[in-house]
TrEMBL record:
UniProt keyword annotations, A-Z: Cytokine, Cytoplasm, Secreted
The gene coding this protein: Il18
GO biological process, one term: cytokine-mediated signaling pathway
Keyword Secreted tagged: yes
Gene3D superfamilies per record: 2.80.10.50
Organism: Erithacus rubecula (European robin)
GO molecular function terms listed in the Swiss-Prot or TrEMBL record: cytokine activity
Recorded family membership: Belongs to the IL-1 family.
Statement: the UniProt record of this protein carries the keyword Secreted: yes
Compartment(s) where it occurs, according to its Swiss-Prot or TrEMBL record: Cytoplasm; Secreted
Identification of the protein by name: Interleukin-18
Subunit record text: Forms a ternary complex with ligand-binding receptor subunit IL18R1 and signaling receptor subunit IL18RAP at the plasma membrane. Mature IL18 first binds to IL18R1 forming a low affinity binary complex, which then interacts with IL18RAP to form a high affinity ternary complex that signals inside the cell. Interacts with cargo receptor TMED10; the interaction mediates the translocation from the cytoplasm into the ERGIC (endoplasmic reticulum-Golgi intermediate compartment) and thereby secretion.
Pfam families in the cross-refs: IL1
Source superkingdom: Eukaryota
InterPro entries per the UniProt record, alphabetical: IL-18, IL-1_fam, IL1/FGF
Length: 191
């Protein structure tokens, strides 16, 4: 059989280096993000706790989860939606959704009382996102040497990362401003 050349390869022909050494793809004038693949994962913090979303309590926090709870998997099995990107240097654009009680919730960020809050809203993640969106995070390796751990930067506010914050006995999911190149363990996540 003949090997069909994938559409992918054709796009890469026109690459030029801009003066700030970013890659510009001439062919891709479309700025929309198109969904490429979905991975099903749990998100763990440095304490091996799983991120659990409880929409009824309007809460997302990292918790110690038993194997049994994990099987039932309520609010902890995430779909990570990967989007094609024209600017790979920013990181891989992803969106998060999670199923709870047969409903789908997506993660987004909203400004509330002067600070950015991570929210989970009922609904589906769109297949295409025109330009910018408050549901997109850039997935990056946590440090250049660790390919297994990641950090997720909020696409609309650079320097803001998904992280957790100790609140009583809870480790709540928050958006945290982290200075460039600072290694902050609270934003380290493994999939």
């Amino acid at each position: 059989g003949r090997v069909k050349m994938s559409d992918e390869e054709i796009l890469v022909l026109a690459v030029e280096l801009g003066k700030d050494f970013c890659l510009y793809f001439d062919e891709l004038e479309c700025d929309a993000l198109c969904k490429e693949k979905i991975l099903h994962r749990v998100l763990r913090n440095v304490h091996s706790q799983l991120l659990v979303v409880r929409p009824d309590l309007n809460l997302a926090a990292f918790e110690d989860v038993t194997d049994q709870e994990m099987q039932s998997g309520k609010g902890m099995h995430f779909s990570i939606h990967y989007y094609k990107t024209t600017t790979p240097l920013a990181g891989m654009p992803v969106a998060f959704s999670v199923q709870v009680e047969n409903k789908s919730y997506y993660m987004c960020c909203e400004r509330e009382g002067g600070e950015m809050i991570v929210r989970f809203k009922e609904g589906e993640v769109p297949k295409e996102i025109p330009g910018e969106s408050n549901i997109i995070f850039f997935k990056k390796t946590f440090t250049p040497y660790s390919s297994m751990a990641f950090k997720f930067e909020y696409s609309l506010e650079r320097g803001m990362f998904l992280a957790f914050e100790q609140e009583g006995c809870l480790r709540k999911l928050i958006l945290k401003k982290v200075p460039k190149d600072e290694v902050d363990e609270t934003m380290k996540m493994s999939l």
